[in-house]
Design brief:
- Pfam families: Acetyltransf_3.
- Keywords: Acyltransferase, Transferase.
- Belongs to the acetyltransferase family. RimJ subfamily.
- This is GNAT family N-acetyltransferase.
- With about 180 residues, this protein is of the alpha+beta class.
- The chain has a domain at about 5-130: Aminopeptidase (3-Layer(aba) Sandwich), CATH 3.40.630.30.
- Helix content is about 30%, strand content about 35%.
- It contains 7 helices and 8 strands.
- The protein has helices at about 20-25, 30-35, 45-55, 55-60, 105-120, 135-145, 175-180, and strands at about 5, 10-15, 65-70, 75-85, 90-100, 125-135, 150-160, 165-175.
- It has an 8-stranded mixed sheet, with helices on both faces.
- The longest helix has 16 residues, at about 105-120.
- The chain is globular.
- It binds coenzyme A (COA).
- The site of coenzyme A has 20 residues, from strand 5, helix 5 and helix 6.
Length: about 180
């Protein structure tokens, strides 16, 4: 069963089929899809429904942990989750987006902080990493704000809309995350 996490302003909880309409409306936005690796545009209701339908299997098979990001009142804002989970190597990647109407309010940072804490404290991960296009400074900033270190630039790492994109790689180790609690 996918977990539910809470922060002062947010819930991170499993998606349900009831989220499909709101998910489609948020994701069917070129401002969102342009800097994600995998979201298609246009993003139809069938994309939302088929993605939500595989979440239990992704989690049960240990491959990914996608969660809905909502306000504490229940409004869907976006998604924050673990992708590329590897139990063998005790690592996972953060994958996320927030609906464009909600940008700049610290929601991605708040959600990422909760997921990073869950990854290290509950899942006992050793390493949490993420990557973003070089042309996505807002995403890089989110990663820096949750304590990730810049690890390098992967040149021509990703082919997006026929253009090879450089990607910035960030990572955080368990020891580094726990060090923040040392007085
Ligand atoms: C990246 C994304 C998740 C950020 O969500 P958000 O909720 O707006 O993020 P936050 O408000 O927590 O933090 C954003 C930070 O980026 C900064 N920022 C925003 N635009 C920026 C820009 N053009 N250049 C530099 N910094 C920028 C903000 O000022 C803020 O930093 P601050 O708190 O130090 O001021 C959101 O823009 C998004 O979903 N984009 C489309 C999908 C995507 O790119 N997903 C990530 C794929 S790697």
């Amino acid at each position: 069963m996918l977990p539910t996490l809470t922060t002062p302003r947010l819930s991170l909880r499993p998606f349900t089929v009831a989220d499909a309409n709101a998910l489609q409306q948020l994701a069917n936005d070129p401002l969102v899809t342009d800097t994600t690796a995998t979201l298609p545009y246009p993003y139809g209701l069938h994309h939302a429904e088929s993605w939500i339908a595989i979440h239990d299997d992704l989690y049960a098979s240990g491959r990914a942990m996608p969660l809905a990001v909502t306000t504490r009142e229940g409004e869907l804002l976006g998604t924050m989750g673990f992708a590329a989970l590897s139990w063998m190597h005790q690592r996972a990647a953060l994958a996320y987006w927030i609906g464009s109407a909600h940008w700049g309010r610290g929601y991605a940072t708040e959600a990422a902080g909760a997921l990073v804490a869950y990854g290290f404290a509950d899942l006992k991960l050793q390493r949490i990493w993420a990557e973003c296009f070089t042309r996505n400074p807002a995403s890089a900033r989110v990663l820096e704000k949750v304590g990730m270190r810049y690890e390098g630039c992967l040149r021509n790492e990703f082919l997006k809309h026929g253009v090879f994109e450089d990607m910035l790689r960030y990572g955080l180790l368990a020891d580094e995350w726990y060090a923040q609690f040392d007085a």
